[in-house]
Amino acid sequence: MSRLIVISNRVSPPKTEDGSGAQGGLAVALAAALREYRGLWFGWSGRKTDKFTGHIDMQRAHGVTTATIDLEEQDVEEYYNGYANRTLWPLFHYRIDLAEYDRSFGSGYERVNERFAETVTPLIEPDDLIWVHDYHLIPLGQQLRERGLKNRMGFFLHIPWPPSRLMVSLPYHEKLVRTMLAYDVIGFQTEEWLESFCHYVERELGGTVDPDGVIHVGDRSVHAAAYPIGVDFKEFTEALESDAARESFERLRTSAAGRRTIIGVDRLDYSKGLEERFLGYRRFLEKHPRYQRKLFLLQIAPPSRGEVATYEVIREHLDELSGRINGEFADVDWVPVRYVNQGYRREELAGFYRAAEIALITPLRDGMNLVAKEYVAAQDPEDPGVLILSRFAGAALQLKDALLVNPYSKDEIADAIMRAIRMPKEERIRRWKAMVEVVRQEDVVAWRHAFVEALEKARPPVRREPTP
Ligand code: ADQ
Protein backbone atom coordinates (compact mmCIF):
# COMPACT_ATOMS: atom_id res chain seq x y z
CA MET A 1 0.00 0.00 0.00
CA SER A 2 1.23 3.49 -0.82
CA ARG A 3 2.21 5.79 2.03
CA LEU A 4 0.14 8.89 2.59
CA ILE A 5 1.90 12.23 2.95
CA VAL A 6 -0.38 14.85 4.47
CA ILE A 7 0.81 18.42 4.14
CA SER A 8 -0.96 21.26 5.92
CA ASN A 9 -0.03 24.66 7.29
CA ARG A 10 0.07 23.50 10.89
CA VAL A 11 0.70 20.08 12.30
CA SER A 12 -0.74 19.04 15.63
CA PRO A 13 0.91 15.85 16.88
CA PRO A 14 -1.64 13.46 18.36
CA LYS A 15 -1.78 13.74 22.14
CA THR A 16 -3.41 10.42 22.82
CA GLU A 17 -4.01 7.20 20.93
CA ASP A 18 -7.78 7.65 20.77
CA GLY A 19 -7.48 11.25 19.68
CA SER A 20 -9.14 12.69 22.78
CA GLY A 21 -7.79 15.80 24.43
CA ALA A 22 -7.93 19.42 23.37
CA GLN A 23 -7.41 18.83 19.63
CA GLY A 24 -9.72 20.00 16.90
CA GLY A 25 -11.72 17.43 14.97
CA LEU A 26 -9.63 17.79 11.85
CA ALA A 27 -6.35 17.06 13.62
CA VAL A 28 -7.87 13.91 15.03
CA ALA A 29 -9.19 12.90 11.61
CA LEU A 30 -5.88 13.42 9.84
CA ALA A 31 -3.97 11.57 12.53
CA ALA A 32 -6.36 8.64 12.12
CA ALA A 33 -5.87 8.68 8.33
CA LEU A 34 -2.10 8.51 8.81
CA ARG A 35 -2.36 5.60 11.18
CA GLU A 36 -4.42 3.79 8.58
CA TYR A 37 -2.19 4.47 5.56
CA ARG A 38 1.20 4.95 7.30
CA GLY A 39 3.21 7.88 6.05
CA LEU A 40 3.76 11.25 7.60
CA TRP A 41 2.31 14.64 8.32
CA PHE A 42 4.36 17.63 7.28
CA GLY A 43 3.87 21.31 8.11
CA TRP A 44 4.80 24.32 10.18
CA SER A 45 5.52 23.71 13.85
CA GLY A 46 3.87 26.98 14.86
CA ARG A 47 7.26 28.19 16.12
CA LYS A 48 9.32 31.09 14.85
CA THR A 49 13.05 31.09 14.30
CA ASP A 50 15.56 33.89 13.58
CA LYS A 51 16.86 32.30 10.41
CA PHE A 52 15.15 29.62 8.33
CA THR A 53 17.38 26.54 8.29
CA GLY A 54 15.14 23.93 6.73
CA HIS A 55 15.73 21.72 9.76
CA ILE A 56 13.01 19.09 10.02
CA ASP A 57 11.85 18.01 13.43
CA MET A 58 10.71 14.40 13.04
CA GLN A 59 8.62 12.90 15.81
CA ARG A 60 6.63 9.76 16.22
CA ALA A 61 3.74 9.57 18.66
CA HIS A 62 0.75 7.26 18.87
CA GLY A 63 1.40 5.69 15.48
CA VAL A 64 1.79 8.96 13.59
CA THR A 65 5.02 10.46 12.24
CA THR A 66 5.12 14.23 12.09
CA ALA A 67 7.75 16.34 10.35
CA THR A 68 7.72 20.03 11.16
CA ILE A 69 9.73 23.10 10.28
CA ASP A 70 10.07 26.46 12.00
CA LEU A 71 9.44 29.66 10.03
CA GLU A 72 10.97 33.10 10.26
CA GLU A 73 9.04 36.00 11.77
CA GLN A 74 8.78 37.61 8.33
CA ASP A 75 7.45 34.35 6.83
CA VAL A 76 4.73 34.15 9.42
CA GLU A 77 3.83 37.79 8.97
CA GLU A 78 3.63 37.71 5.17
CA TYR A 79 2.52 34.18 4.43
CA TYR A 80 0.29 33.29 7.38
CA ASN A 81 -0.98 36.55 8.90
CA GLY A 82 -0.67 38.21 5.50
CA TYR A 83 -1.62 36.39 2.31
CA ALA A 84 -3.43 33.44 3.93
CA ASN A 85 -5.43 35.27 6.57
CA ARG A 86 -5.68 38.85 5.32
CA THR A 87 -5.99 38.20 1.59
CA LEU A 88 -7.32 34.72 0.80
CA TRP A 89 -9.45 34.04 3.88
CA PRO A 90 -11.64 37.16 3.52
CA LEU A 91 -11.80 36.90 -0.28
CA PHE A 92 -12.79 33.23 -0.20
CA HIS A 93 -15.47 34.08 2.39
CA TYR A 94 -16.88 36.71 -0.01
CA ARG A 95 -15.51 39.61 2.05
CA ILE A 96 -13.60 41.55 -0.56
CA ASP A 97 -14.16 44.61 1.62
CA LEU A 98 -11.77 43.06 4.17
CA ALA A 99 -9.26 41.54 1.76
CA GLU A 100 -5.87 43.27 1.75
CA TYR A 101 -3.53 43.09 -1.20
CA ASP A 102 0.07 43.73 -0.43
CA ARG A 103 2.93 42.74 -2.68
CA SER A 104 4.97 41.49 0.27
CA PHE A 105 2.15 39.09 1.25
CA GLY A 106 2.21 37.50 -2.20
CA SER A 107 5.97 37.08 -2.24
CA GLY A 108 5.99 35.74 1.32
CA TYR A 109 3.30 33.22 0.35
CA GLU A 110 5.33 32.03 -2.59
CA ARG A 111 8.52 31.90 -0.54
CA VAL A 112 6.99 29.79 2.22
CA ASN A 113 5.39 27.42 -0.29
CA GLU A 114 8.84 27.02 -1.82
CA ARG A 115 10.30 26.36 1.61
CA PHE A 116 7.69 23.69 2.22
CA ALA A 117 8.45 22.11 -1.17
CA GLU A 118 12.20 22.26 -0.68
CA THR A 119 12.13 20.61 2.74
CA VAL A 120 9.47 17.98 2.13
CA THR A 121 10.76 16.75 -1.25
CA PRO A 122 13.61 14.59 0.14
CA LEU A 123 11.12 12.86 2.46
CA ILE A 124 8.91 11.69 -0.40
CA GLU A 125 9.20 8.27 -2.02
CA PRO A 126 8.09 7.63 -5.62
CA ASP A 127 4.94 5.70 -4.74
CA ASP A 128 3.66 8.05 -2.00
CA LEU A 129 0.25 9.67 -2.26
CA ILE A 130 0.47 13.36 -1.44
CA TRP A 131 -2.50 15.17 0.09
CA VAL A 132 -2.16 18.94 0.46
CA HIS A 133 -4.64 20.84 2.63
CA ASP A 134 -6.17 24.25 2.36
CA TYR A 135 -5.68 27.79 1.14
CA HIS A 136 -2.27 28.27 2.74
CA LEU A 137 -0.70 25.85 0.29
CA ILE A 138 -2.47 26.24 -3.04
CA PRO A 139 0.74 26.50 -5.14
CA LEU A 140 2.59 23.73 -3.30
CA GLY A 141 1.68 21.02 -5.82
CA GLN A 142 3.19 23.09 -8.61
CA GLN A 143 6.32 23.68 -6.54
CA LEU A 144 6.66 19.95 -5.95
CA ARG A 145 6.24 19.18 -9.66
CA GLU A 146 8.97 21.67 -10.45
CA ARG A 147 11.23 19.61 -8.21
CA GLY A 148 10.53 16.55 -10.33
CA LEU A 149 7.89 14.77 -8.26
CA LYS A 150 5.58 12.61 -10.34
CA ASN A 151 3.53 11.30 -7.45
CA ARG A 152 -0.21 11.36 -7.36
CA MET A 153 -1.12 14.60 -5.64
CA GLY A 154 -4.41 15.88 -4.30
CA PHE A 155 -5.53 19.18 -2.85
CA PHE A 156 -8.49 19.72 -0.54
CA LEU A 157 -9.91 23.18 0.12
CA HIS A 158 -11.55 23.43 3.53
CA ILE A 159 -13.09 26.83 2.89
CA PRO A 160 -15.49 28.10 0.19
CA TRP A 161 -14.39 28.83 -3.37
CA PRO A 162 -15.68 32.31 -4.21
CA PRO A 163 -17.73 33.23 -7.28
CA SER A 164 -15.57 34.17 -10.28
CA ARG A 165 -16.68 37.80 -10.11
CA LEU A 166 -15.10 38.08 -6.67
CA MET A 167 -12.14 35.87 -7.44
CA VAL A 168 -10.99 38.18 -10.21
CA SER A 169 -10.46 40.97 -7.68
CA LEU A 170 -7.36 39.09 -6.50
CA PRO A 171 -4.26 40.45 -8.22
CA TYR A 172 -2.60 37.64 -10.22
CA HIS A 173 -5.60 35.36 -9.58
CA GLU A 174 -4.97 33.50 -12.80
CA LYS A 175 -1.40 32.69 -11.88
CA LEU A 176 -2.54 31.30 -8.53
CA VAL A 177 -5.37 29.18 -9.94
CA ARG A 178 -3.20 27.78 -12.72
CA THR A 179 -0.87 26.30 -10.11
CA MET A 180 -3.79 24.09 -9.03
CA LEU A 181 -3.62 22.25 -12.33
CA ALA A 182 -0.49 20.53 -11.01
CA TYR A 183 -2.68 18.35 -8.77
CA ASP A 184 -4.42 15.19 -9.96
CA VAL A 185 -7.44 15.60 -7.70
CA ILE A 186 -8.95 18.81 -6.33
CA GLY A 187 -11.59 18.48 -3.62
CA PHE A 188 -14.14 20.99 -2.36
CA GLN A 189 -16.54 20.80 0.56
CA THR A 190 -19.72 21.20 -1.53
CA GLU A 191 -21.10 21.19 -5.04
CA GLU A 192 -21.59 24.92 -4.72
CA TRP A 193 -17.89 25.70 -4.29
CA LEU A 194 -17.07 23.15 -6.97
CA GLU A 195 -19.44 24.90 -9.36
CA SER A 196 -17.80 28.26 -8.70
CA PHE A 197 -14.40 26.73 -9.37
CA CYS A 198 -15.54 25.14 -12.64
CA HIS A 199 -17.09 28.45 -13.67
CA TYR A 200 -13.77 30.16 -13.06
CA VAL A 201 -11.88 27.52 -15.05
CA GLU A 202 -14.21 27.93 -18.02
CA ARG A 203 -14.44 31.71 -17.92
CA GLU A 204 -10.95 32.75 -16.96
CA LEU A 205 -8.75 29.86 -18.09
CA GLY A 206 -10.71 28.84 -21.18
CA GLY A 207 -10.92 25.28 -19.85
CA THR A 208 -13.68 22.70 -20.23
CA VAL A 209 -15.39 20.50 -17.67
CA ASP A 210 -16.57 16.97 -18.49
CA PRO A 211 -19.83 15.71 -16.96
CA ASP A 212 -17.77 13.34 -14.77
CA GLY A 213 -15.90 16.27 -13.22
CA VAL A 214 -12.66 16.08 -15.17
CA ILE A 215 -11.35 19.54 -15.94
CA HIS A 216 -9.25 20.14 -19.02
CA VAL A 217 -7.05 23.18 -19.44
CA GLY A 218 -4.54 22.99 -22.26
CA ASP A 219 -2.82 19.61 -21.94
CA ARG A 220 -3.70 19.21 -18.26
CA SER A 221 -6.60 17.12 -16.95
CA VAL A 222 -7.58 17.27 -13.30
CA HIS A 223 -10.35 15.51 -11.46
CA ALA A 224 -12.41 17.98 -9.40
CA ALA A 225 -15.22 16.92 -7.06
CA ALA A 226 -17.05 17.67 -3.83
CA TYR A 227 -16.00 15.65 -0.78
CA PRO A 228 -18.01 17.02 2.15
CA ILE A 229 -16.03 16.63 5.35
CA GLY A 230 -17.76 15.07 8.35
CA VAL A 231 -17.16 14.50 12.02
CA ASP A 232 -15.72 11.36 13.54
CA PHE A 233 -19.12 10.04 14.54
CA LYS A 234 -17.82 7.09 16.49
CA GLU A 235 -15.23 9.10 18.38
CA PHE A 236 -17.77 11.81 19.13
CA THR A 237 -20.49 9.52 20.42
CA GLU A 238 -17.88 7.75 22.55
CA ALA A 239 -16.77 11.10 23.94
CA LEU A 240 -20.38 11.62 25.02
CA GLU A 241 -20.11 8.59 27.28
CA SER A 242 -17.10 9.97 29.14
CA ASP A 243 -17.18 11.29 32.70
CA ALA A 244 -16.06 14.68 31.43
CA ALA A 245 -19.07 14.86 29.09
CA ARG A 246 -21.46 13.81 31.85
CA GLU A 247 -19.99 16.42 34.16
CA SER A 248 -20.22 19.24 31.64
CA PHE A 249 -23.79 18.19 30.80
CA GLU A 250 -24.72 18.38 34.50
CA ARG A 251 -22.86 21.61 34.94
CA LEU A 252 -24.79 23.33 32.18
CA ARG A 253 -28.17 21.86 33.03
CA THR A 254 -27.76 22.76 36.73
CA SER A 255 -26.72 26.31 36.01
CA ALA A 256 -29.55 26.69 33.49
CA ALA A 257 -32.00 26.10 36.35
CA GLY A 258 -34.83 24.98 34.08
CA ARG A 259 -34.15 27.59 31.41
CA ARG A 260 -33.45 26.53 27.86
CA THR A 261 -29.95 26.87 26.52
CA ILE A 262 -29.25 28.13 23.03
CA ILE A 263 -25.67 27.20 22.24
CA GLY A 264 -23.21 28.65 19.72
CA VAL A 265 -19.62 27.37 19.38
CA ASP A 266 -17.28 29.05 16.93
CA ARG A 267 -13.76 30.30 16.56
CA LEU A 268 -13.96 34.06 17.02
CA ASP A 269 -14.03 34.98 13.34
CA TYR A 270 -16.03 37.51 11.30
CA SER A 271 -17.09 34.73 8.91
CA LYS A 272 -19.02 33.05 11.72
CA GLY A 273 -21.66 35.81 11.86
CA LEU A 274 -21.43 36.29 15.63
CA GLU A 275 -22.45 39.94 15.65
CA GLU A 276 -25.42 39.22 13.41
CA ARG A 277 -26.31 36.25 15.66
CA PHE A 278 -26.27 38.40 18.79
CA LEU A 279 -28.45 40.97 17.05
CA GLY A 280 -30.89 38.29 15.89
CA TYR A 281 -31.10 36.97 19.44
CA ARG A 282 -31.61 40.50 20.72
CA ARG A 283 -34.46 40.90 18.24
CA PHE A 284 -36.02 37.73 19.69
CA LEU A 285 -35.81 39.13 23.24
CA GLU A 286 -37.38 42.37 22.08
CA LYS A 287 -40.20 40.67 20.18
CA HIS A 288 -41.05 38.12 22.87
CA PRO A 289 -40.63 39.69 26.30
CA ARG A 290 -42.46 36.84 28.02
CA TYR A 291 -39.85 34.38 26.89
CA GLN A 292 -36.98 36.52 28.09
CA ARG A 293 -36.24 34.75 31.32
CA LYS A 294 -36.99 31.31 29.97
CA LEU A 295 -33.80 30.92 28.00
CA PHE A 296 -30.28 32.21 27.49
CA LEU A 297 -27.61 32.18 24.81
CA LEU A 298 -24.34 30.42 25.62
CA GLN A 299 -21.80 31.56 23.06
CA ILE A 300 -18.44 29.82 23.28
CA ALA A 301 -15.92 31.63 21.08
CA PRO A 302 -12.20 31.14 21.65
CA PRO A 303 -10.16 33.95 20.05
CA SER A 304 -8.21 33.10 16.92
CA ARG A 305 -5.67 34.88 14.69
CA GLY A 306 -5.04 37.54 17.31
CA GLU A 307 -2.17 38.99 15.26
CA VAL A 308 -4.58 40.15 12.54
CA ALA A 309 -6.21 43.51 13.28
CA THR A 310 -9.71 42.65 11.97
CA TYR A 311 -9.89 39.91 14.59
CA GLU A 312 -9.14 42.42 17.33
CA VAL A 313 -11.90 44.64 16.01
CA ILE A 314 -14.50 41.86 15.91
CA ARG A 315 -13.50 40.85 19.42
CA GLU A 316 -14.06 44.38 20.70
CA HIS A 317 -17.42 44.60 18.91
CA LEU A 318 -18.60 41.36 20.46
CA ASP A 319 -17.45 42.30 23.96
CA GLU A 320 -19.34 45.51 23.58
CA LEU A 321 -22.45 43.99 22.04
CA SER A 322 -22.81 41.14 24.55
CA GLY A 323 -22.33 43.67 27.36
CA ARG A 324 -24.94 45.95 25.83
CA ILE A 325 -27.53 43.17 25.47
CA ASN A 326 -26.89 42.02 29.02
CA GLY A 327 -27.11 45.57 30.35
CA GLU A 328 -30.35 46.12 28.51
CA PHE A 329 -32.18 42.91 29.43
CA ALA A 330 -30.51 41.23 32.45
CA ASP A 331 -32.11 40.95 35.86
CA VAL A 332 -30.59 40.07 39.23
CA ASP A 333 -31.16 36.37 38.62
CA TRP A 334 -30.91 36.12 34.83
CA VAL A 335 -28.32 37.03 32.23
CA PRO A 336 -29.40 36.66 28.58
CA VAL A 337 -25.94 36.13 27.05
CA ARG A 338 -23.18 34.00 28.53
CA TYR A 339 -20.24 34.88 26.36
CA VAL A 340 -17.23 32.67 26.96
CA ASN A 341 -13.86 33.14 25.26
CA GLN A 342 -12.21 29.85 26.03
CA GLY A 343 -11.66 26.52 24.35
CA TYR A 344 -12.95 23.26 25.84
CA ARG A 345 -11.97 19.64 25.52
CA ARG A 346 -14.00 17.66 23.03
CA GLU A 347 -15.64 15.60 25.78
CA GLU A 348 -16.74 18.76 27.56
CA LEU A 349 -18.09 20.25 24.35
CA ALA A 350 -20.02 17.06 23.68
CA GLY A 351 -21.70 17.40 27.07
CA PHE A 352 -22.58 21.06 26.42
CA TYR A 353 -24.10 20.22 23.03
CA ARG A 354 -26.20 17.49 24.59
CA ALA A 355 -27.44 19.80 27.33
CA ALA A 356 -28.46 22.59 24.94
CA GLU A 357 -32.02 22.47 23.61
CA ILE A 358 -31.19 24.69 20.64
CA ALA A 359 -28.03 25.29 18.60
CA LEU A 360 -27.70 28.60 16.80
CA ILE A 361 -25.04 28.30 14.13
CA THR A 362 -25.18 31.18 11.73
CA PRO A 363 -21.98 31.74 9.75
CA LEU A 364 -22.20 34.32 6.98
CA ARG A 365 -20.15 31.92 4.88
CA ASP A 366 -18.51 28.65 5.89
CA GLY A 367 -16.81 25.91 3.88
CA MET A 368 -18.66 23.23 5.86
CA ASN A 369 -19.05 23.91 9.62
CA LEU A 370 -18.35 20.91 11.78
CA VAL A 371 -19.99 22.34 14.89
CA ALA A 372 -23.43 21.85 13.30
CA LYS A 373 -22.64 18.18 12.71
CA GLU A 374 -21.16 17.72 16.17
CA TYR A 375 -24.34 19.16 17.69
CA VAL A 376 -26.49 16.68 15.76
CA ALA A 377 -24.21 13.78 16.73
CA ALA A 378 -24.47 14.71 20.41
CA GLN A 379 -28.26 14.72 20.73
CA ASP A 380 -30.40 12.39 22.81
CA PRO A 381 -32.43 10.29 20.31
CA GLU A 382 -35.44 10.35 22.65
CA ASP A 383 -35.42 14.10 23.11
CA PRO A 384 -33.18 15.82 20.55
CA GLY A 385 -32.56 19.53 20.35
CA VAL A 386 -33.21 21.81 17.38
CA LEU A 387 -30.49 22.97 15.02
CA ILE A 388 -30.84 26.47 13.57
CA LEU A 389 -28.31 26.71 10.75
CA SER A 390 -27.22 29.35 8.29
CA ARG A 391 -28.13 28.57 4.71
CA PHE A 392 -24.65 29.84 3.79
CA ALA A 393 -22.78 27.10 5.65
CA GLY A 394 -21.65 24.21 3.45
CA ALA A 395 -23.32 21.92 5.99
CA ALA A 396 -26.74 23.34 5.02
CA LEU A 397 -26.59 21.38 1.75
CA GLN A 398 -26.55 18.15 3.75
CA LEU A 399 -28.52 19.10 6.87
CA LYS A 400 -31.68 20.08 5.05
CA ASP A 401 -33.84 19.28 8.07
CA ALA A 402 -32.28 21.97 10.21
CA LEU A 403 -34.15 25.27 10.51
CA LEU A 404 -32.28 27.07 7.77
CA VAL A 405 -31.97 30.83 8.12
CA ASN A 406 -30.47 33.80 6.38
CA PRO A 407 -27.89 34.90 8.96
CA TYR A 408 -28.09 38.54 7.82
CA SER A 409 -31.77 38.72 8.81
CA LYS A 410 -32.39 39.47 12.50
CA ASP A 411 -36.04 38.61 12.02
CA GLU A 412 -35.36 35.22 10.48
CA ILE A 413 -33.07 34.37 13.39
CA ALA A 414 -35.63 35.60 15.92
CA ASP A 415 -38.46 33.67 14.25
CA ALA A 416 -36.39 30.48 14.03
CA ILE A 417 -35.67 30.66 17.77
CA MET A 418 -39.40 30.97 18.41
CA ARG A 419 -40.11 28.06 16.11
CA ALA A 420 -37.46 25.95 17.83
CA ILE A 421 -38.97 26.66 21.23
CA ARG A 422 -42.43 25.69 20.09
CA MET A 423 -41.44 22.70 17.99
CA PRO A 424 -43.32 19.54 19.05
CA LYS A 425 -41.20 16.60 20.13
CA GLU A 426 -42.32 14.43 17.18
CA GLU A 427 -41.09 17.04 14.72
CA ARG A 428 -37.80 17.41 16.58
CA ILE A 429 -37.27 13.66 16.44
CA ARG A 430 -38.23 13.45 12.77
CA ARG A 431 -35.85 16.23 11.77
CA TRP A 432 -33.04 14.93 13.94
CA LYS A 433 -33.33 11.38 12.58
CA ALA A 434 -32.96 12.62 9.02
CA MET A 435 -29.92 14.71 9.97
CA VAL A 436 -28.16 12.14 12.12
CA GLU A 437 -28.29 9.62 9.27
CA VAL A 438 -26.27 11.99 7.11
CA VAL A 439 -23.86 12.84 9.93
CA ARG A 440 -23.34 9.16 10.72
CA GLN A 441 -22.91 7.96 7.15
CA GLU A 442 -21.00 10.83 5.65
CA ASP A 443 -18.52 11.01 8.48
CA VAL A 444 -14.86 11.87 8.43
CA VAL A 445 -13.81 8.29 7.79
CA ALA A 446 -15.97 8.16 4.65
CA TRP A 447 -14.53 11.55 3.65
CA ARG A 448 -10.91 10.52 3.80
CA HIS A 449 -11.61 7.17 2.15
CA ALA A 450 -13.40 8.88 -0.74
CA PHE A 451 -10.60 11.38 -1.23
CA VAL A 452 -7.74 8.91 -0.94
CA GLU A 453 -9.55 6.49 -3.24
CA ALA A 454 -9.92 9.20 -5.88
CA LEU A 455 -6.23 9.93 -5.48
CA GLU A 456 -5.28 6.27 -5.80
CA LYS A 457 -7.28 6.01 -8.99
CA ALA A 458 -5.71 9.10 -10.52
CA ARG A 459 -3.09 8.03 -13.01
CA PRO A 460 0.22 9.70 -12.35
CA PRO A 461 0.51 12.01 -15.31
CA VAL A 462 3.71 12.09 -17.27
CA ARG A 463 5.49 15.35 -16.73
CA ARG A 464 8.62 17.08 -17.80
CA GLU A 465 11.72 16.78 -15.64
CA PRO A 466 12.57 20.03 -13.84
CA THR A 467 14.60 22.41 -15.89
CA PRO A 468 18.16 22.35 -14.56
P1 ADQ B 1 -13.34 26.21 11.26
O1 ADQ B 1 -13.59 27.53 10.61
O2 ADQ B 1 -12.41 26.23 12.42
O3 ADQ B 1 -12.84 25.13 10.20
P2 ADQ B 1 -15.58 24.33 12.08
O4 ADQ B 1 -15.82 23.46 10.93
O5 ADQ B 1 -16.81 24.69 12.80
O6 ADQ B 1 -14.83 25.69 11.72
O7 ADQ B 1 -14.60 23.56 13.06
C1 ADQ B 1 -14.27 24.04 14.30
C2 ADQ B 1 -13.77 22.90 15.19
O8 ADQ B 1 -13.20 23.47 16.35
C3 ADQ B 1 -14.92 22.00 15.64
O9 ADQ B 1 -14.48 20.67 15.66
C4 ADQ B 1 -15.22 22.51 17.05
O10 ADQ B 1 -15.68 21.53 17.94
C5 ADQ B 1 -13.88 23.03 17.50
N1 ADQ B 1 -14.10 24.15 18.42
C6 ADQ B 1 -14.68 25.32 18.16
N2 ADQ B 1 -14.77 26.07 19.27
C7 ADQ B 1 -14.22 25.35 20.25
C8 ADQ B 1 -14.00 25.55 21.64
N3 ADQ B 1 -14.37 26.66 22.27
N4 ADQ B 1 -13.38 24.59 22.33
C9 ADQ B 1 -12.98 23.46 21.72
N5 ADQ B 1 -13.18 23.20 20.43
C10 ADQ B 1 -13.78 24.12 19.70
C11 ADQ B 1 -12.49 25.14 8.81
C12 ADQ B 1 -13.55 25.69 7.86
C13 ADQ B 1 -14.87 24.96 8.05
C14 ADQ B 1 -14.66 23.45 7.88
C15 ADQ B 1 -13.47 22.96 8.71
C16 ADQ B 1 -13.12 21.52 8.38
O11 ADQ B 1 -13.72 27.09 8.06
O12 ADQ B 1 -15.85 25.42 7.15
O13 ADQ B 1 -15.82 22.77 8.29
O14 ADQ B 1 -12.32 23.75 8.46
O15 ADQ B 1 -12.93 21.34 7.03
TrEMBL record:
<comment type="pathway">
    <text>Glycan biosynthesis; trehalose biosynthesis.</text>
</comment>
<comment type="subunit">
    <text>Homotetramer.</text>
</comment>
<protein>
    <recommendedName>
        <fullName>Trehalose-6-phosphate synthase</fullName>
        <ecNumber>2.4.1.15</ecNumber>
    </recommendedName>
</protein>
<comment type="function">
    <text>Probably involved in the osmoprotection via the biosynthesis of trehalose. Catalyzes the transfer of glucose from UDP-alpha-D-glucose (UDP-Glc) to D-glucose 6-phosphate (Glc-6-P) to form trehalose-6-phosphate. Acts with retention of the anomeric configuration of the UDP-sugar donor.</text>
</comment>
<dbReference type="Pfam" id="PF00982">
    <property type="entry name" value="Glyco_transf_20"/>
</dbReference>
<keyword id="KW-0808">Transferase</keyword>
<dbReference type="GO" id="GO:0003825">
    <property type="term" value="F:alpha,alpha-trehalose-phosphate synthase (UDP-forming) activity"/>
</dbReference>
<dbReference type="InterPro" id="IPR012766">
    <property type="entry name" value="Trehalose_OtsA"/>
</dbReference>
<dbReference type="GO" id="GO:0005992">
    <property type="term" value="P:trehalose biosynthetic process"/>
</dbReference>
<comment type="similarity">
    <text>Belongs to the glycosyltransferase 20 family.</text>
</comment>
<keyword id="KW-0328">Glycosyltransferase</keyword>
<dbReference type="InterPro" id="IPR001830">
    <property type="entry name" value="Glyco_trans_20"/>
</dbReference>
